[in-house]
Design goal:
It is found in: Membrane. This protein is an all-alpha fold. About 75% of the residues lie in helices and about 0% in strands.
Length: about 400
């Protein structure tokens, strides 16, 4: 960058030098003993002006070329940086900061935000009320539950050897299984207390039972003695936990009032919860692409271990097609408001991006690592569009009914 910067300023210096030479030439020609006529002076001035103009054009073109070269060099550097930053676990020298970022898994916490927001939007559609206090209490509690899921997953995968070569595993980074284990179950305890306190405070027993079922799905997914994810049952459990259980529970809690403690389960919340479960499950499915060999070695028979990555890429294509097919089916049956169909349709390019990325890179272990983050993007945008559509349907009942 410093070289490019200096090159651009060399153009400015060259321009000054050319201008100085023109001035000197004009002074020499215009005053040879003060005998030159006024007409000659004007002619020389016009010639010098024209020459200066031509020089300026040449210099500007030179500077433009140098600018293009600098931009190309800069773009190449950015591309190389992006490739290195997005390189999967196969990379040998991954920076510590990158490993910490992957271990934190901040984008994955959208799986806590989306069910809550969609459930709250469905409750607003039904009742016209929204409690910010309850929403943020549930959000903090949900984040703690997701923290438990992430940490305990690293702990138990460390025990089985599935994360032996996983550099961003929390256990490998911290260097202590006990610390990760204690942090995981402390998060679970605090999160469950927060969910139970909010639910019981509203007198909503069914909601806390739904949330308990969601947490139970997470436990049997990865914790001993069950470890159902090793039998390829992780995706159905994920669908149930984040879709029907969590989304409908949040809907019930956020929509409850003193007059109506328990909201009826409408077609809107049931169909919305299915779509949320669908996009969440897609994240889990795509997170296995880059670790098929490691999973197979420790006897973890995820769907991708059974199918292979090539057929798995076909499953992703079918899943995205089914997601939008369900969306339009719910719209045609009037189960979901028209606003939801219109807004969620805007995320079609993101769905196409997920499919294209997986089809192009399913053989490349380094690049396919990013597939789950493309799915997170689809999950978050689709969820935001779905929630916005539910709110808009209530706000503009005369237009979206």
């Amino acid at each position: 960058m410093a070289t490019a910067f200096c090159s651009l300023h060399q153009g400015s210096s060259l321009k000054k030098l050319q201008y100085y030479n023109v001035r000197q030439s004009y002074a020499t020609r215009s005053y040879p003993g003060a005998r030159t006529s006024n007409v000659s002076k004007k002619s020389l001035m016009c010639c010098c002006t024209a020459q200066n103009f031509v020089c300026g054009i040449r210099i500007s073109r030179l500077e433009f070329k140098k600018g293009i070269q600098c931009w190309r060099a800069f773009s190449g550097s950015i591309a190389n940086y992006a490739d290195n930053a997005h390189e999967g676990e196969s990379g040998e020298d991954v920076p510590q900061a990158t490993l910490i970022w992957r271990a934190v898994k901040l984008p994955i916490y959208s799986v806590a935000l989306v069910p809550l927001t969609v459930g709250g939007a469905a409750a607003y559609l039904e009742t016209g009320i929204f409690s910010a206090r309850r929403y943020f209490l549930l959000l903090v509690s949900s984040i703690l539950i997701i923290t438990w899921l992430n940490l305990s997953n690293d702990v138990y995968d460390f025990d089985t050897g599935a994360d032996k070569n996983k550099k961003e595993s929390v256990v490998n980074l911290v260097g202590s299984r006990s610390v990760a284990f204690i942090a995981a179950y402390s998060s679970l305890l605090l999160g469950f207390v927060g969910l139970a306190w909010t639910s019981m405070g509203e007198g909503n027993v069914p909601a806390i039972l739904f949330l308990a079922c969601a947490i139970l799905c997470g436990y049997v997914y990865q914790c001993p003695p069950f470890r159902l994810s090793y039998q390829g049952l992780g995706e159905p459990l994920c669908f149930a936990a984040f879709g029907p259980f969590a989304t409908t529970a949040f809907y019930s809690i956020l929509g409850s009032t003193s007059e109506m403690r328990i909201l009826p389960l409408t077609g809107a919340i049931l169909s919305a919860s299915l779509l949320v479960g669908f996009t969440t499950t897609l994240i889990l499915f795509c997170s296995h692409f880059h670790q098929v060999e490691e999973d197979k070695a420790v006897g973890k028979f995820s769907p991708l271990v059974r199918l292979g990555t090539e057929r798995g890429s076909g499953v992703v294509k079918v899943a995205v097609a089914m997601l939008y097919s369900l969306l339009f089916a719910f719209g045609l049956s009037r189960t979901l408001p028209l606003a939801c169909i219109l807004l969620c349709s805007l995320t079609l390019p993101v769905g196409k991006l997920v499919v294209g990325f997986v089809e192009e890179n399913y053989k490349d272990k380094g690049k396919i690592f990013m597939a789950k983050y493309f799915c997170v993007r689809l999950h978050a945008l689709f969820g935001a569009a779905l929630a916005s559509g539910l709110v808009a349907a209530r706000a503009f009942q005369g237009y979206f009914s």
